[in-house]
Amino acid sequence: MADRRRITLKDIARDLGISVSTVSRALNSYSGISEDTIRTVKAYAEEHNYVPNTMAVNFRKNKTLTLGLIVPELVHYFFSSVISGALAEAKKRGYTVLVSQTSESLSNEIYAIRTMLGSSVDGVMISLSNETTTSEYLEELIEEGRPIVQFDKVLEGFKTPKVIVDDFDGAYAAVEHLIQQGYKKIAHLNGFKQVTNARHRLEGYQKALKDYHLEQPEEYVIHCKDISEEEGYRYTKELMESANPPDAIFCITDLIAMGSMKYLKENGHRIPEEVGLIGFSNWDMANFVTPSLSSVDQHGFQIGEKACQVLVDLLKSQEPLEDKTYLIKTSLVVRESSTRQSNV
Amino acid sequence: MADRRRITLKDIARDLGISVSTVSRALNSYSGISEDTIRTVKAYAEEHNYVPNTMAVNFRKNKTLTLGLIVPELVHYFFSSVISGALAEAKKRGYTVLVSQTSESLSNEIYAIRTMLGSSVDGVMISLSNETTTSEYLEELIEEGRPIVQFDKVLEGFKTPKVIVDDFDGAYAAVEHLIQQGYKKIAHLNGFKQVTNARHRLEGYQKALKDYHLEQPEEYVIHCKDISEEEGYRYTKELMESANPPDAIFCITDLIAMGSMKYLKENGHRIPEEVGLIGFSNWDMANFVTPSLSSVDQHGFQIGEKACQVLVDLLKSQEPLEDKTYLIKTSLVVRESSTRQSNV
DNA sequence: TTGAAAGCGGTACCAC
DNA sequence: GTGGTACCGCTTTCAA
């Protein structure tokens, strides 16, 4: 490896016959330096291809202009959108981003946080793993003076800024849409009761039904254990084979909806005529399946952008962490699976 | 922000009444230090929660244990798999990863490289943007002694290790499979002629046909301009409306295949009975569409892993960059779209 | 086996 | 407006 030694401030100072401090000030265009000196120094630096040694600067300033970003899953439409948004915003603000994934495991999460600390990121954006129920490991970061912003999957009791999807509103809109399409027996495949997002979506579902005086029997809400296609299939089967099958299903994620759709198609239930179907997350595949799947878009890109923005603002302002929640609105994407040609 | 000052080597030395260098050596378990000292120092460090200041270490050692990873697109099944693999391998080797995306733009790519240099990554893994035709910006990195490993979309003439998909082999397998399923008139929706991956897939297609004595007319190969669903649709229409329509189509990516499938379904061409269809990339959605799409899996995770492994080995060995190519084998995933029930 | 001390490349404070 | 210099925290050479 070449490793052609870079030119340093000292070199420039020597060659120009001035002091190191003057060179430093000139390059940073400090006030109290003559235009002349600035020009000379900058020209010389340019010509000799001077690049400041970031490690030295970081070390001296105790700042790295690097942010940490921790997600549960990387190969995932929503989270890759979040990362994309965070990267875009970070770039705008002059930061770089260290990415880590926890695969929904607490031990990986702890490791990631330690690594971030070790790499001296200035602050961290994190979406917690499903296993995380305490904030003690995260406190370490804060103790080190590295602010945290939580997004998507957050710990309510942990006092940091939070950027989350407006799950309640999204679920409400989805169910309201089904109602407006004339569906009257609307079931809901929900997730883990403990997970905040799941709870909010359930509440949105219930509120919409209540507002339209269409309360449903208890059996119409099923809590999935792991969010998988298989579960969507299995619970849809359960619902459809029950004495009182629904005429529409609101699924907590598109993956569940895929399983649901599979069952319905295999068993000759026509979508959307006989059964309406709607998902949540608006994966790329929602467009490509047949019938195309209506879904609630969570605007992952915006969430990443916002989380990064809040974090950088925090870094600049030096204010203490505020326990503030930023809700990002969803939007309903209506496709074939919930659109009845007739009765509306 | 709290910023509770961390304890330093100097603190430990003072409190223990020994010298800083001894503390440093003890903590790093250097030889030539008494077991006793090591134990005492480590215990004290542990107790007082000593964490070395990474920025100082980086500065001193001129190493960051951070790698750069540059991809054209982030919200993309293949690339997020690559990132996932690279992160996993990096973690194993004790490195962290700075991620950047170029959105297929050369100027973004240049910016990303500069940023990586600025952040003093030890080395970089990169998949080039479509706009990149010269390596001059990349040379900068190498001049700084930061090795590069290219993956997926590479510049042949740029002498660095390369980790790429065995496109030729994957295409060959796909076409061979179609032939074995009894298809005889196999068309190919290819990509940009200039792009290496596209060329290799075309060659694989041609070789398979040749080996089975099934050479096809020139009109059976169409070069898409931008890889989009619309193009898949448009060119499939062109093919099917021609005087001599094919009975199978090998698409350069799953996205093209989606457009193709859309056209075929809309126009009553039954898949796979009348027309066989096969894609390349094996997106998550290939499973969920109807009929499910046969596709060539590119093993993105493995590519990321391998790229990272090669890079770290390079970093450790300090050897000069070798112009070596690592081919990652694909695997054919056969699903409904290419499986004729009858004649095989 | 240990200590003293010289930096790594900047920044910023204090003089002049 | 400029120069001198201490120092950030750690590693490493040299000497004892």
What does this protein look like?
Chains A, B: InterPro entries: HTH_LacI (IPR000843), LacI/GalR-like_sensor (IPR046335), Lambda_DNA-bd_dom_sf (IPR010982), Peripla_BP_I (IPR028082). Chains A, B: One of its GO terms (molecular function) is DNA binding. Chains A, B: Keywords: DNA-binding, Transcription, Transcription regulation. Chains A, B: Residues 7-61 form the HTH lacI-type domain. The structure is a homodimer of 344-residue chains. The first copy, chain A, folds into three domains: 9-52, no CATH class; 66-164 and 300-327, Rossmann fold; 167-298 and 332-343, Response regulator (Rossmann fold, 3-Layer(aba) Sandwich). The first copy, chain A, contains twelve helices and twelve strands. Chain A has helices at residues 9-16, 20-27, 35-47, 54-61, 77-92, 106-118, 136-143, 167-180, 196-211, 229-241, 254-266, 300-317, and strands spanning 66-71, 96-101, 123-126, 148-151, 162-165, 186-190, 221-223, 248-251, 276-281, 294-297, 325-328, 331-333. Chain A has a six-stranded parallel sheet, with helices on both faces. A six-stranded mixed sheet of chain A has the order 7-6-8-9-10-12, with helices on both faces. In chain A, helix 7 (136-143) links the parallel strand 3 (123-126) and strand 4 (148-151). In chain A, helix 10 packs across helix 11 (254-266). The mean pLDDT of chain A is 93. Chains A and B meet through helix 4, helix 5, strand 2 and helix 6 of A and helix 4, helix 5, strand 2 and helix 6 of B. Chain A binds a DNA duplex (16 and 16 nucleotides) through helix 2 and helix 4.
